[in-house]
Write a structure and sequence with these properties.
Elements: H1 12-22, H2 25-29, H3 39-67, E1 70-72, E2 75-77, H4 81-91, H5 110-123, H6 125-144, H7 147-158, E3 162-167, E4 183-186, E5 193-204, E6 213-222, E7 232-238, E8 240-242, E9 248-251, E10 254-260, E11 270-275, E12 282-285, H8 293-311
Parallel strand pairs: 3-6, 4-6
Antiparallel strand pairs: 1-2, 4-5, 5-11, 5-12, 6-7, 7-12, 8-9, 10-11
Helix pairs in contact: 1-3, 3-4, 3-5, 5-6, 6-7, 6-8
């Protein structure tokens, strides 16, 4: 078998057993808000997902691992086959299967979404890091963001126009997140706008060209805030600032300082990011609420834990 052929296989009968005999999904489908979903629709989704995983994602796995990621002109370049995979993933609606209709979703049970992600992660785990982090960041903004932030950032992330990340760790603040030194200085005369400065490390899907913009969720400390995790706030920091019409505008001073190397995830860009090196990086306070950064970020961290479990 050549390296560009699919090697992924899955037992669809096992998935049906888990959903309907172990987890009793049919009982959930009889209740709000899932009445429009029945066993036939669920089985159809599983069949289509298996086709997508084996025909689209599977063949890109070995190719992506061989090509890997690299930095060109300050931007991460992903393996060439990933562009088509990203495009088809979002065009076919796989990332919004369980999302609310307000966000363009189909309102399916999260259990079904999780099983589709297991198939896709099995077919190409490195590729799925990019949409996985994006989805978690979009869900966080949808939950905690202002109405303007949801419309401006979460919706384009849900449909694949923008990517997303979570930025916690720093060179001196790994497991001790409360020691973070990334700073946020209020911009005079601007509501909820801050200048961000600092370095973050181990940022999965930290940069790529699959989407036109990357929305970083950054933990930082506002001037005068108390030490430790209680003093941290969460900021929306786009790679590119947006114009009034929502289109991509000027570069927001988010530099890629390097790519980490993860065994088995050669095609996933785990980055070191520098914010505000030229004192021109702007962030927007999540939900307009300060000093709630860890509480807000835990929502995405829990999404990530589920994702890592599925990937395993």
């Amino acid at each position: 078998m050549s390296s560009d052929q699919n090697r992924y296989k899955a037992d669809l009968r096992e998935y049906q057993f888990l959903l309907f005999e172990q987890f009793r999904l049919d009982e959930l489908l009889s209740k709000e808000p899932f009445q429009e979903w029945g066993p036939d629709e669920v089985k159809m989704v599983l069949d289509e997902c298996y086709r997508f995983a084996t025909e689209i994602l599977g063949p890109t796995n070995a190719l992506g691992d061989r090509e890997g990621c690299r930095i060109e002109d300050g931007q991460v370049k992903t393996p060439e086959p990933f562009k088509n995979a990203w495009k088809q993933l979002y065009e076919q609606g796989w990332r919004v299967l369980s999302a609310d209709e307000e966000m363009g979703g189909q309102g399916a049970p999260m259990t079904l979404q999780a099983l589709t992600e297991e198939m896709m992660s099995g077919a190409n785990p490195a590729f799925m890091m990019y949409p996985g982090l994006t989805h978690g960041a979009a869900e966080l903004i949808s939950h905690f963001g202002t109405a303007e932030q949801r419309n401006t950032y979460a919706k384009p992330m849900m449909d694949g126009r923008f990517g997303g990340t979570m930025c916690l760790s720093e060179p001196g603040a790994g497991s001790d997140v409360g020691a973070a030194k990334t700073s946020a200085v209020p911009v005079e005369g601007e509501d909820l706008v801050y200048k961000i400065r600092g370095q973050k490390i181990w940022i999965s899907a930290g940069d790529h060209e699959l989407a036109s913009n990357i929305i970083h969720l950054v933990l930082a400390r506002i001037e005068g805030a108390e030490p430790g995790t209680k003093g941290l706030s969460l900021f929306i920091v786009p790679k590119y600032r947006l114009k009034d019409d929502g289109s991509v505008g000027d570069f927001n001073d988010v530099q890629v300082a390097g790519i980490e190397h993860k065994m088995g995830l050669n095609a996933s860009a785990t980055c070191q990011l520098q914010f505000g090196e030229s004192d021109d990086c702007y962030g927007y306070l999540m939900g307009g609420v300060a000093h709630q950064g860890m509480k807000q970020m835990f929502m995405m961290m829990n999404f990530a834990r589920i994702g890592v479990g599925i990937q395993g």
